[in-house]
Write a structure and sequence with these properties.
The complex is a heterotrimer.
Chain A (H helix, E strand, L loop, with lengths): L1 H30 L16 E8 L11 H10 L3 E8 L4 H11 L5 E4 L1 H9 L8 H7 L5 H6 L1 E2 L2 E2 L2 E7 L1 E5 H6 L15 H17 L9 E3 L6 H11 L17 H15 L4 E3 L4 H9 L5 E5 L1 H7 L7 E4 L12 E9 L5 H16 L1 H11 L2 E2 L14 H10 L13 H18 L3 H13 L4
Parallel strand pairs in A: 1-2, 1-3, 8-9
Antiparallel strand pairs in A: 3-12, 4-5, 6-12, 6-13, 7-10, 7-11
Helix pairs in contact in A: 9-10, 13-14, 16-17
Chain B lengths: L1 H13 L3 H31 L4 H4 L14 H7 L3 H32 L5 H12 L3 H14 L7 H9 L2 H10 L4 H9 L4 H29 L2 H7 L8 H12 L3 H21 L1 H14 L1
Chain C lengths: L1 H11 L15 H37 L1 E4 L2 E5 L3 H8 L1 H32 L4 H17 L1 H11 L6 H6 L13 H13 L1 H12 L3 H9 L4 H12 L1 H16 L3 H6 L11 H10 L4 H28 L1
Antiparallel strand pairs in C: 1-2
Helix pairs in contact in C: 2-15, 3-15, 4-8, 4-9, 4-12, 4-14, 5-6, 5-9, 9-12, 10-11, 12-15, 14-15
Chain lengths: 450, 289, 312
């Protein structure tokens, strides 16, 4: 009677599981709001377990990238066990929301201010990290300091930062005779020269001089890399994404509309292309494949990720600007936020970890180098000074000179990101009227700004 | 079944008119075109997984990788790909076994017993059958957290078992059991459970087979629950890992195709080897729907 | 052999013999005993069903009435989420797309698989199982594997479709007019496998003597089909309708991996909007409200299908 036994076993299993669940189910509605479900039993032992969810920033693409840092941390703190879950920008938000709303959110998150301060701190999910800042944050630049806080409290403790820029395929530009339009020393170009350069690439591709399918691709598909398209539009005629006082999104300003119109014209005359199905990652891959000759989503991290695939020199450039003075968007500052999961032991352990990674100079420099960006601690100096690839990093250091205003903590940021892509797609791929589309975008984005 | 077909065939070809011969040719041509159309993606997955970056990104189609490379598979197996394969197999098999057990019991009760609340229960089951899991996923994830099962394979398995389609299918099968046989068993003094195991179970076995196949394939393809419930890369399933590879690496199609091939080829082999049982089992489901 | 007889039985007399009405001719004690034992048999299944479907559904209804974001439930919102929903143009678009997918995919899949089945069921065993196998392969290949290869095939610059058609750069999935049709097409290829297997079996079991008699009487091919075969395979058709509808409502991997509802919401479905609202916009209360509306739509749909099934 094997069947009978299996049946009995199955029944028993089903009942235990379901009974446990029923108890859970009935209380979950009242419980969910605290977001505190995960704490609990683990504190009973001597070891505290904390979980770190790390976005794939620079070289931190896999859990194993954290091993040496955690090992060093455990030498000083053997009783804290850190587990790492790597997440990426494609579905990281979904994973975090699902975990946080389910009550199984992480203890520490490795990301930038947009999510840590803008999303999570604003929802009251994060722990105040002011004490870390008071103790060791005195040499961190004002620009980074100000974006790490909300209502006077610090929620992000930063590790490294850089500037988002763009890049060109140097050899393709050279062959197309387009290098004359850019300043290779300052890595800047004017809007007029950018247009001429892209047209030169287009013509060279049409003539068969270079093997490029399209000069450049404006990616309009959702998820990630939006900073590239934002910076492109805003720089062309030196405007901002959000008005000076932060009270309104600004895509419909005269200069931004002019910029969007210019890009629309470029798409129409073939010196640019636009793909509504493309996300930034698709465009980067197309750049690496030499399908297109420029990318609008560049930084050291992407350089490192695609280095093995690129059979050409990706030459980092600032975004083109009518006055030749670009204002770049900060990549990061990337650092840590600590979730308030209602368990003080975990919070203390998490803070210790953050303090160690960001303030211990040995561990910190290693972590910074893994991100590929630049340390926020000015006291640490040039951590890449004697690195083998110092010359590869130099252009990215140069980009830091062009850092502009940080507006990514404006209210309704998440919602406007979801609106930005359809607006771009409408303008670039369906030829929609620029002013109307931009007005629509602004009125919808502003609905959540307060 | 094959005897049926053989019996029909000569009769039909005997009175073929010109018109119907034309139709037959048309039908065969359409079928062949469709076959090519449906097989092409599979062909493209398998050949793509052996293409190097140059062939993958070529501007002219590379119909066959003349210089096949294992590089994509090496990249794939640098990651715990076999663990991911194991995870999806485990999820599918566990969901299949649990669904078959619970649904067979419940289907029998619904199909053969007359009890209070039967109509209402059946109506609820019918209504819930088409309910997409997206609707209830937020509370579901909370339940899983409370049960300590979030980010484990059980968080995918258990909700799959809760889906009432199996109960519906087994009810349809159980209804075909003649009442007299059950009555006879009862007269012989068999208890409820004994009757179920010795009389009912053998009679609905083909139905269980149908349900097993259906549940296995559906669970394998239920990307959504895996996406929401599984977080750490040790818990990922192969389909989830493929989609994550796409997220990280954008269009490194060689690597993605290697992942897709690893996910598809084993189950295709199993399917072709057991094709007869597969189709018979599915067909059983049909007849009683 | 036992299997074949069941099949044949059902094929020739599709309508179930009506079960006797529940309590007729049963004593009260018997009813009670039957009820107890029935529920014991139902218990394991019901535990799963209640825990993982019914309870979450109720919680979902509750959440839909609250202001629920990442920070937890912030308060009771009454019907605000529903009002917001019905005014949301994205929801209107999602509703129309959902209807479009169901209305296009379900009849085409059903009609087409019936056609394929009638073309192959009389073939020799070898070609018949070959075709049946081919049409079923996309189902076993798996939705994610099929979807990612289609993404590559449709890639504007490296995709084989554009390379063959000479339309380099055309963005099939980035075009508002074409994207949804590719979603439907791919859904179609992964949906016809099962119905074909079902129809081949059902058609193979239609009583041949009746067909032959009709042919002797000079009935045309169409008449034979409508008067004899169609009624016999009616139960199969209903079953096919049910599973295809479920499939069409639930197509998630396709949209998530190919278009994420874009471009310009042209592939947004209600189902995908639940996901998008919850996980990208973090508005969990609104997401639950969309979920409830979707559940109601589906319940109505199912009810209609089964009403039709009954009256037939």
């Amino acid at each position: 009677m094997k069947l009978k036994r299996i049946f009995a076993l199955g029944l028993a299993l089903a009942m235990t599981l379901s009974l446990a669940a029923c108890g859970g189910g009935s209380t979950s509605s009242s419980q969910a709001s605290s977001g505190a479900a995960s704490g609990g039993s683990s504190t009973s032992g001597s070891a505290t377990e904390i979980s770190l969810w790390a976005f794939n920033i620079g070289g931190f693409t896999e859990a194993s990238n954290w091993d040496s840092i955690i090992a060093a941390f455990n030498e000083a703190n053997p009783d804290i066990k850190v587990t790492v879950t790597p997440i990426n920008y494609q579905d990281g938000d979904q994973k975090l929301t699902s975990a946080i709303s389910g009550g199984s959110g992480p203890d520490i998150i490795f990301e930038g201010p947009e999510r840590i301060v803008g999303n999570y701190a604003r929802e009251g999910l994060m722990v105040d990290l002011t004490d870390l800042w008071t103790a060791s944050g005195s040499d961190i630049a004002e620009g980074i300091n100000s974006v790490s806080q909300l209502d006077g409290k610090y929620y992000l403790y930063p590790l490294s930062a850089a500037a988002h820029c763009m890049a060109i395929n140097y050899e393709a530009f050279e062959a197309a005779g387009a290098l004359q339009y850019l300043d290779e020393t300052t890595r800047t170009w004017t809007t007029d020269n950018f247009v001429k350069a892209m047209e030169a690439v287009r013509d060279a591709a049409a003539a068969g001089t270079i093997d490029i399918t399209v000069p450049g691709i404006i990616y309009c598909g959702a998820q990630g890399g939006d900073q590239g398209t934002r910076a492109l539009v805003n720089n062309l005629y030196s405007d901002y994404y959000v008005t000076e006082d932060g009270s309104s999104y600004n895509a419909n300003s005269a200069n931004n509309v002019k910029a969007l119109t210019l890009l629309q014209d470029m798409v129409n005359n073939g010196s640019m292309s636009a793909n509504a199905s493309f996300a930034a990652a698709d465009e980067l891959q197309a750049f690496a494949n030499q399908t297109c000759a420029v990318t609008f989503c560049w930084n050291y991290s992407n350089y490192a990720q695609y280095a093995a695939q690129t059979q050409f020199t990706p030459f980092a450039m600032a975004f083109p600007s009518d006055d030749g003075t670009p204002e770049l968007e900060m990549a990061g500052p990337y650092g840590f936020g600590v979730f308030d999961n209602g368990d003080q032991a975990k919070i203390d352990a998490a803070k210790k970890f953050v303090d160690f990674v960001c303030n211990d100079q040995t561990a910190g420099v290693e972590a910074v180098k893994t991100t590929g960006f630049f340390p926020v601690h000015s006291d640490w100096g040039d951590v890449y000074a004697d690195a083998e690839d110092a010359d590869v990093r130099a252009p990215f250091a140069l980009m830091n000179e062009y850092l502009g205003r940080y507006y990514n903590l404006t209210g309704g940021w998440t919602e406007q990101r979801a609106l930005w892509w359809p607006m771009l797609a409408a303008i670039m791929t369906t030829g929609a009227d620029v002013q109307t589309a931009a007005d629509d975008f602004v009125s919808q984005a502003n609905a959540n700004i307060g | 079944m094959s005897t049926n077909a053989a019996a029909v065939k000569p009769k039909k070809s005997g009175n073929l008119t010109g018109n119907s011969r034309g139709y037959t040719i048309f039908a065969v041509v359409v079928l062949i075109v469709l076959t090519l159309f449906l097989l092409f993606p599979l062909y493209w997955i398998v050949t793509g997984s052996f293409k190097d970056a140059i062939a993958i990104n070529a501007k002219e189609p590379v119909w066959f990788p003349m210089e096949p490379t294992m590089a994509n598979y090496q990249k794939l197996f640098d990651r715990p790909a076999f663990l991911w394969l194991f995870n999806i197999v485990f999820i599918s098999v566990a969901a299949m076994v649990l669904t078959c057990i619970t649904a067979a019991l419940a289907g029998y009760a619904l199909g053969k017993k007359r009890f209070i609340g039967q109509k209402i229960l059946f109506t609820i089951i019918i209504c819930a059958m088409a309910l997409p899991k997206q609707v209830i996923v937020i509370p579901l994830a909370q339940e899983m957290t409370l049960m300590g099962l979030i980010d484990t394979l059980w968080a995918v398995i258990l909700p799959t078992v809760g889906w009432p389609f199996g109960v519906f299918l087994m009810k349809q099968f159980a209804e075909t059991i003649p009442g007299e046989i059950l009555e006879a068993a009862r007269v012989d003094g068999a208890g409820e459970l004994r009757t179920f195991i010795t009389v009912v179970l053998p009679m609905i076995k083909p139905g269980i087979g149908a349900l097993a196949i259906f549940t296995f394939v559906n669970t394998w393809n239920d990307y959504f629950l895996q996406l929401v419930m599984l977080q750490s890369d040790t818990q990922w399933t192969l389909p989830l890992a493929i989609s994550n590879l796409q997220g990280e690496m954008s269009s490194d199609f060689g690597l993605i195709m290697a992942g897709a091939a690893l996910a598809a080829v084993p189950i295709i082999i199993v399917f072709i080897a057991f094709q007869k049982y597969f189709t018979q089992g599915i067909a059983m489901g049909a007849v009683k729907g | 052999m036992a299997q074949n007889t069941t099949v044949a039985d059902a094929g020739s007399k599709p309508k179930k013999t009506k079960a006797p009405s529940p309590h007729s001719g049963m004593s009260r004690a018997l009813v009670r005993r039957e009820t107890t034992s029935a529920y014991l048999f139902l218990l394991p299944s019901l535990l799963f069903f209640v825990t993982f479907v019914v309870v979450p559904m109720f919680i979902c209804v509750y959440y839909s009435l609250t202001d629920y974001g990442l920070g937890g439930v912030k308060g009771f919102a009454g019907l605000n989420n529903y009002i917001k929903l019905f005014q949301d143009p994205v929801f209107h678009k999602g509703f129309l797309n959902t209807v479009l997918i169901v209305v296009v995919a379900v009849p085409t899949v059903t009609a087409f698989s019936l056609w394929v089945s009638s073309a192959i069921y009389k073939m020799h065993a070898v070609p018949r199982s070959f075709f049946r196998c081919v049409f079923y392969l996309p189902v076993v290949t798996g939705s994610v594997a099929i979807t990612v290869v289609w993404k590559w095939i449709l890639h504007p610059y490296n995709g084989v479709l554009n390379q063959v058609a000479g339309t380099t750069g055309f963005d099939w999935l980035g075009n508002q007019k074409t994207a949804i049709w590719f979603i439907i097409l791919i859904l179609f290829t992964t949906s016809i496998g099962q119905p074909i297997v079902l129809y081949v079996a059902a058609l193979g079991n239609v009583d041949n003597s009746i067909i032959e008699a009709a042919e002797v009487d000079g009935a045309t091919r169409l008449q034979v089909f409508w008067k004899i075969k169609w009624p016999s395979i009616m139960p199969t058709t209903l079953y096919v309708l049910v599973i295809t509808t479920i499939n069409s409502f639930q197509c998630f991997a396709l949209i998530q991996l190919l278009t994420k509802g874009g471009p310009l919401n042209s592939t947004m479905t209600i189902m995908y909007q639940v996901y998008d609202t919850a996980y990208r916009l973090n508005d969990l209360g609104l997401a639950c409200a969309i979920g409830v509306v979707l559940a109601v739509i589906i319940a109505i749909f199912s009810a209609i299908q089964f009403k039709v099934a009954k009256t037939d």
